[in-house]
Amino acid sequence: MAEKLKMLKFPDPRLRTVAKKVEKFDKSLExxxxxxxxxxxxDNGIGLAxxxxxxxxxxxxxxxxxxxxxxxxxxxxxxxxxxxxxxxxFEEGCLSVPxxxxxxxxxDKIELKWQDLSGELHQDTPDGLLTICIQHEIxxxxxxxxxxxxxxxxxxxxxxxxxxxxxxxxxxxx
Length: 174
Ligand code: NI
Fold this sequence. Notes:
Structural class: alpha+beta
Bound molecules: nickel (II) ion
Mean pLDDT: 93
């Protein structure tokens, strides 16, 4: 049975960790991806990076289908921007920054390389949502969050609101 994993929430400093490359393609990697997919589905996300569940290796899971029945796994994903002028704007949210979404502009023509659970290499030039989602998730692997692209003012507003939320849920009366 898959386990639900605990999500790190901004401003947890562990979200800033740069994840290491996966070297071992073993049963524990497979188990992690199962648990990550389970966690992502439970929390209604479309993508999740291992960094967000406090595992600092370059592993991403995703499901962009409406029926939520097309799980995808990307191990050690890397991308190259093919055209710097071709941009797309999406309203992005993040399971580690609950309750916030903002319009982010990213390049939408990329070449993507990754490995699967058996270590086999794959390459693609995706389009649409996958292009944007994979950049958001690879940012997690590099310790970056989508709110890093926002202005300082907007970011500090988010920090204030979230730390209020956090202190509320942690507050005890003694
Ligand atoms: Ni995210």
